[in-house]
């Protein structure tokens, strides 16, 4: 991170992948905390994007996330990822209750470019900040998760990608009869992330 | 920023989270509300719920409340006073109080639990619910209850609640069990951590020192000696022992030192707690627990604590010092427009004011008292109290009434719309048919244009055809009341319009028929100039009848020009009047036409006066006529068409004024209004009111029957075959053969015919009759039912007065002929006692003791006429026609409106007289074949003017068929409530209706088949044949069934009578 800041004001593909992966790392942590998937006491606070972020202190979870984000970063720099989905489902019934979807648009032309793109680090950070803030604010409309829940990470990649060892193929895990809310998006000029949350509508009016 | 759909984020602090989540669309909509419109929409929705609560008639009132509450939660995300949620909940609970069936309904329970959130002591409420056995089989109660207890740290009690729930096998049990497991996990973890904490609090402090953090309520002073480290960082774990979101508060470490000396009982630490768990004992609650602390409620406190108000000086000093000496930190990215949206418009939201203490009763107290009231219930409100106060808002009685009205109206409109669509469809169909026929006719016309005389006749035929379209529509409109019993206004207006059209086309046609334009104008119009009265008279005489149509400005304008030319009126007059021409025609037309009795209408009079002024151009006053006016007017109404034209009256402006201001407008004046008006716009210097003989003043009445139009057509063309026919027999009768004058019951009255009007009395012979009802046959013929003035009539029999506007006792003649030719059979279907009064200008036939209910009435009042009665009527009809034809008389106009019910139907004691189901009194269109053996044209019969008549009849059809078709039409009408429609199939006529599904389908199929396809066969045997066909259904049980069904009709007939009379 320090390295990035010291660098010139320009975005390379690799740097962009790093920024996006970092966003996902914090974003997923944030969701897990906000939605109470893991006990609140297992989170610690860190300063990031000018916000106080909560990241898990659970070593197992940390490892898992690092693993995923590492892989994600790799794919991002190859522009192979289309979408990342955080699926929250009931532990008992395995019913999908919430679905956080981050659509990633990769500018594949950046692979062949050498010149970095012009966008200030700060601008990107501000955009990310507003996304994170929105994730936090979603409690205003999301239903209460009454049962214990588990989460799942789905990454949608290009078709021709070989499935790595620790990964398996899965369905999209949609919610039937859901209410969808678009959140803000941010872009590094190479990667654009559109976020959206979907939740069950059955119990509503 | 508010526009990009992120209002929810900007207002996130104003949105209360909901257990079931929120609908984004609603949330956005509510938060984005900037204008009054959204607010009114919300108010309307609320209103809808409120009224639904009041007018709900289903069996699940909880459903509305449930939806109402959910809607309230979604629509008022910020909660608070405006949402009125607690009031709604409270009212719902009151409304559904004691409804045992809802006690185990999850919706009802959730209602209570939500209400519990509004209470300060939800625990009380839960135990109340438990004691009342509300929701005791539902897991949600126990879960919520236990959560609350857990939040308060009462783990033991919480566990008891879970145990209780599991014991009761509350549904869903697995959810309850899993919640219980989670609860136990939380508690054990808690206990574990507590044990660790108990050991050494300080140790924990030390362990956490490694990370930068700020201890709760610690001083923000710098610590340390060399490096001053201010614990300003908010990052890191606060020294709040992990309690997993529960409200269990531990004393902060700093306070540990100043702990009070007494020991606090800690049940968790108690090792020697009793091993048995406390059992949940239901408490004997009478009412739900009271109180709920609202944010503004006053707390009890020492009243001496109040501060003395500061002096003014102080406050001013304070105000000056208000400006902060520091600059508040503003985030660089903060944008001005990213402000939280304003709450609601100020016009909607009232200014907050402090709640008056004690003014408002506590809501739960109300619930409580309501519950107690419900148990006592001594008062009986004499108004619909439950509706006024059913919802949260109060409805006024008027609003309730309006709502009921609207509901009814909506239903009515729906049925009306359906009917209208159906009618529209029918009209279109008919118009199509008519158009086709017109085409055909025009082609024929072209061939026949050789002899000039013939051409004139044909023109009249065309004019008939053109009028035919409105006639058809009228027919359709007539069927409407038969089906439904009332004629909606929209239709009546429409028919009015059609009438206007009809008139116009009549005029244009008749003018076409004329050769010179000069005659044309005089045909339509005649001008009276009192200075040359004689000349005018001759002119008027030459044209016979003047038909004026004042409703169409176009026509009138044309007239005015031709008239100006003819009469040599100074051009400036007409010019001037062209400008003033548009009088509110609509007002006049509709005004006078709607008014059946033609009573003075103030609006009309206004226009009337204006019209009179318009004509007040050069006028040579005729004073002598003024005196005559009254008399003349009286005469006018008695005049008939055939009387000499000496009744034309010149009416001066003054006379009109007089009529308007001094006398009240007489019906005749009013009726002649259109004439006056059109002459006004024509700009003639004086005006003449050529009052058309208003034997029946409502000549423009809405019920414009077929006959009427036909007659109009006849009048328009004097040389039509019908005209010849009529004149023939008229001439024959005018000679008054001895046959008539010597017959008993014939009275020659050497005077004008008395004026007859509904609800008036009339002197006939030496008796006075009170007219109770009128049946319109045509313009010239009318039937009134009347009762002798000195007799209060008890049954539905009455005198029927048939009025004919010409001094030709045709009806009487036919009756006499029938009496003679039928002998004993005569009484069965014709009136036994009849008298004829012949006046100078008309003829009245009086029939005694005849039921005044027509077949039409019966069809109209009973949706379904019993099968037996139908058979009886049709059989009788066949019999009558058979008799008539045997006597060589053609009835010519068999019409349900003029067929009166006979003894058999209305008189319960006339059981044997099965052949007396109908009485015929109207013979206006009858033909005596002995008198006029060569009748070739069918045009004179009304039925030939209908669609079906046009379809079936051609030039060669024998006259007898007219009656056959009449029978078929009536039979169809009785059976199905609508007129017969036919189509041709393999050279034979078939009804459009599929009879196979109806009762006696085969029977009626053969019936219609035979009667429609007589093909010139002799009718008498055919009719007999048909009767035999029908009689197959008269089995041995028939008389009994007939009696039954007639008795059923009986009551209804009398009810119908009440309405009729």
Automatic annotation (TrEMBL), chain A:
SUPFAM superfamilies per the UniProt record, alphabetical: The spindle assembly checkpoint protein mad2
Keywords from the UniProt entry: Cell cycle, Cell division, Mitosis, Nucleus
One Pfam family linked to the record: HORMA
InterPro entries cross-referenced by the UniProt entry: HORMA_dom, HORMA_dom_sf, Mad2-like
Superkingdom of this protein's organism: Eukaryota
Main location (coarse class): nucleus
GO biological process terms, semicolon-separated: cell division; mitotic spindle assembly checkpoint signaling
Subcellular location: Nucleus
Domain HORMA: 14-197
GO cellular component: kinetochore; mitotic spindle assembly checkpoint MAD1-MAD2 complex; nucleoplasm
Record family assignment: Belongs to the MAD2 family.
Protein name as it appears in the record: Mitotic spindle assembly checkpoint protein MAD2A
Organism: Python bivittatus
Gene, per the UniProt record: MAD2L1
TrEMBL record, chain B:
Organism annotation: Python bivittatus (Burmese python)
Protein name as it appears in the record: Mitotic checkpoint serine/threonine-protein kinase BUB1 beta
GO annotation (BP), single: mitotic spindle assembly checkpoint signaling
Coiled coil: 406-440
Compositionally biased region (Acidic residues): 195-205
Keyword list, A-Z: Coiled coil, Kinase, Transferase
Pfam families noted in UniProt: Mad3_BUB1_I
GO CC annotation: kinetochore; nucleus
BUB1 N-terminal domain location: 49-216
SUPFAM superfamilies listed in its UniProt record: Protein kinase-like (PK-like)
SMART domains linked to this entry: Mad3_BUB1_I
InterPro entries, alphabetized: Bub1/Mad3 (IPR015661), Kinase-like_dom_sf (IPR011009), Mad3/Bub1_I (IPR013212)
UniProt keyword Transferase present: yes
Region described as Disordered: spans on this chain: 195-214, 286-312, 358-380
């Amino acid at each position: 991170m320090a390295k990035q800041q010291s660098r010139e004001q320009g975005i390379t593909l690799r740097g962009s992948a790093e920024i996006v992966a970092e966003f996902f790392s914090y974003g997923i942590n944030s969701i897990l905390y906000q939605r109470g998937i893991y006990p609140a006491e297992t989170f610690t606070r860190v300063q990031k994007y000018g916000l106080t972020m909560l990241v898990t202190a659970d070593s197992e979870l940390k490892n898992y996330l690092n693993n995923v984000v590492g892989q994600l970063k790799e794919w991002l720099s190859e522009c192979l990822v289309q979408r990342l989905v955080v699926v929250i489902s009931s532990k008992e019934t395995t019913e999908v209750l919430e679905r956080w979807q981050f659509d990633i648009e990769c500018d594949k032309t950046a692979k062949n470019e050498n010149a970095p793109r012009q966008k200030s680090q700060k601008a990107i950070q501000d955009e990310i900040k507003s996304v994170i803030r929105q994730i936090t604010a979603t409690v205003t409309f999301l239903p209460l998760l009454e049962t214990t829940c588990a989460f799942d990470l789905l990454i949608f990649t290009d078709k021709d990608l070989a499935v790595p060892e620790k990964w398996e193929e899965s369905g999209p895990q949609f919610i039937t009869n859901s209410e969808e809310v678009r959140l803000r998006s941010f872009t590094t000029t190479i990667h654009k992330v559109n976020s959206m949350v979907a939740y069950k509508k059955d119990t509503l009016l | 920023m508010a526009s990009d759909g992120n209002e929810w984020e900007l207002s996130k602090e104003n949105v209360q989270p909901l257990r079931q989540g929120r609908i984004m669309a609603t949330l956005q909509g509510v938060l984005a509300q900037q204008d009054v419109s959204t607010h009114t929409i919300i108010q309307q929705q609320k209103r809808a719920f409120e009224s639904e609560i009041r007018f709900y008639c289903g069996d699940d009132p909880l459903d509305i409340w449930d939806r109402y509450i959910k809607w309230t939660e979604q629509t008022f995300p910020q909660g608070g006073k405006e949402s009125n949620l607690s009031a709604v909940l409270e009212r719902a609970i009151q409304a559904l109080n004691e409804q045992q069936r809802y006690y185990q309904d999850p919706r009802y329970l959730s209602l209570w639990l939500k209400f519990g959130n509004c209470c300060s002591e939800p625990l009380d409420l839960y135990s109340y619910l438990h004691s009342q056995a509300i929701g005791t089989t539902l897991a949600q109660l126990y879960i919520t209850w236990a959560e609350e207890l857990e939040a308060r740290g009462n783990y033991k009690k919480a566990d008891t609640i879970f145990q209780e729930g599991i014991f009761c096998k509350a549904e869903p049990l697995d959810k309850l069990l899993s919640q219980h497991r989670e609860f136990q996990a939380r508690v054990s973890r808690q206990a574990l951590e507590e044990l660790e904490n108990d050991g050494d609090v300080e140790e924990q402090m030390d362990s956490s020192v490694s990370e930068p953090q700020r201890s709760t309520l610690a001083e923000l002073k710098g610590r340390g000696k060399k490096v001053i480290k201010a614990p300003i960082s908010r990052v890191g774990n606060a020294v709040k022992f992990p309690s997993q979101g529960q409200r269990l508060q531990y004393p902060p470490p700093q306070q540990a030192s100043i702990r009070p000396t007494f020991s606090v009982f800690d049940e968790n630490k108690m090792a020697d707690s009793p091993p048995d768990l406390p059992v949940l004992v239901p408490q004997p609650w009478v009412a739900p627990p009271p109180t709920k602390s609202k944010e503004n409620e006053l707390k009890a406190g020492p009243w001496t604590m109040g501060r003395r108000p500061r002096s003014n000086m102080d406050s001013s000093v304070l105000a000056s010092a208000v400006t902060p000496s520091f600059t508040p930190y503003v985030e660089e990215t903060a944008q001005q427009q990213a402000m939280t949206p304003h709450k609601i418009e100020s016009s909607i939201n009232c200014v907050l004011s402090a709640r008056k203490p004690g003014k408002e009763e506590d809501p739960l107290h109300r619930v409580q008292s309501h519950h107690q009231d419900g148990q006592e219930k001594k008062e009986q409100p004499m108004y619909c109290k439950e509706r006024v106060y059913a919802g949260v808002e109060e409805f006024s009685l008027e609003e309730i009434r309006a709502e009921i009205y609207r509901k009814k109206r909506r239903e009515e409109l729906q049925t009306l719309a359906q009917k209208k669509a159906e009618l529209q469809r029918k009209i279109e169909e008919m118009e199509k048919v008519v158009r086709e026929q017109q085409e055909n006719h025009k082609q024929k016309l072209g061939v026949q244009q050789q002899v000039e005389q013939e051409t004139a006749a044909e023109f009249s035929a065309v004019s008939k055809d053109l009028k035919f379209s409105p006639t058809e529509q009228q027919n359709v409109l007539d069927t409407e009341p038969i089906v439904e019993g009332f004629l909606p206004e929209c239709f009546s207006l429409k028919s009015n319009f059609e009438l206007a059209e009809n008139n116009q086309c009549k005029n244009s046609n008749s003018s076409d028929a004329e050769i010179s334009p000069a005659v044309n104008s005089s045909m339509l119009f005649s001008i009276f100039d009192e200075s040359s009265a004689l000349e005018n008279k001759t002119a008027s005489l030459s044209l016979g009848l003047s038909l004026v149509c004042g409703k169409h400005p176009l026509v009138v304008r044309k007239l005015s020009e031709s008239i100006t030319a003819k009469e040599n009126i100074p051009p400036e007059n007409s010019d001037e009047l062209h400008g003033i021409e548009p009088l509110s025609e609509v007002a006049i037309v509709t005004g006078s036409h709607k008014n059946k009795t033609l009573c003075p209408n103030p609006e009309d009079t206004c226009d009337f006066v204006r019209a009179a002024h318009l004509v007040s151009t050069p006028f040579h006053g005729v004073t002598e006529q003024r005196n005559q006016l009254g008399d003349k007017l009286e005469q006018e109404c008695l005049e008939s068409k055939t009387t000499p034209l000496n009744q034309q009256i010149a009416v001066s402006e003054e006379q009109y004024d007089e009529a308007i201001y001094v006398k009240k407008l007489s019906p005749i004046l009013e009726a002649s209004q259109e004439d006056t008006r059109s002459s006004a716009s024509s700009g003639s210097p004086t005006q003449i009111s050529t009052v058309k003989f208003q034997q029946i003043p409502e000549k423009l009445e809405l019920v414009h029957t077929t006959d009427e139009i036909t007659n109009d057509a006849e009048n328009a063309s004097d040389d039509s075959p019908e005209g010849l026919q009529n004149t023939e027999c008229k001439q024959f009768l005018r000679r008054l053969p001895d046959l008539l004058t010597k017959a008993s019951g014939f009275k020659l009255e050497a005077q004008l015919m008395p004026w007859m009007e509904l609800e008036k009395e009339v002197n006939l012979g030496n008796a006075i009759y009170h007219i109770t009802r009128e049946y319109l046959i045509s313009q010239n013929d009318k039937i009134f039912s009347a009762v002798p003035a000195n007799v209060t009539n008890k049954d539905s029999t009455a005198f029927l007065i048939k009025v004919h506007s010409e001094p030709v006792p045709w009806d009487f003649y036919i009756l006499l002929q029938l009496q003679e030719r039928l002998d004993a059979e005569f009484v069965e279907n014709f009136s036994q006692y009849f008298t004829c009064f012949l006046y100078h200008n008309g003829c009245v036939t009086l029939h005694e003791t005849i039921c005044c209910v027509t077949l039409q009435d019966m069809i109209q009042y009973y949706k379904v006429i019993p099968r037996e009665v139908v058979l009886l009527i049709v059989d009788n009809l066949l019999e009558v026609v058979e008799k008539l034809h045997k006597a060589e008389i053609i009835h010519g106009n068999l019409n349900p409106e003029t067929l009166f019910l006979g003894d058999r139907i209305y008189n319960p004691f006339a059981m044997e007289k099965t052949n007396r189901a109908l009485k015929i009194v109207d013979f206006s269109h009858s033909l005596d074949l002995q008198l006029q053996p060569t009748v070739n044209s069918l045009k004179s019969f009304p039925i030939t003017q209908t669609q079906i008549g046009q379809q079936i009849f051609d030039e060669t059809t024998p006259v007898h068929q007219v009656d056959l078709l009449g029978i078929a039409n009536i039979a169809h009408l009785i059976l199905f409530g609508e007129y017969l429609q036919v189509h041709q199939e393999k050279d034979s006529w078939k009804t459009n209706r599929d009879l196979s599904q109806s009762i006696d389908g085969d029977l009626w199929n053969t019936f219609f088949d035979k009667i429609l396809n007589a093909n010139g066969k002799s009718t008498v045997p055919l009719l007999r044949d048909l009767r035999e066909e029908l009689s197959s259904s008269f089995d041995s049980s028939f008389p009994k069934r007939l009696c039954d069904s007639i008795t059923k009709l009986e009551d209804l007939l009398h009810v119908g009578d009440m309405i009729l009379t």
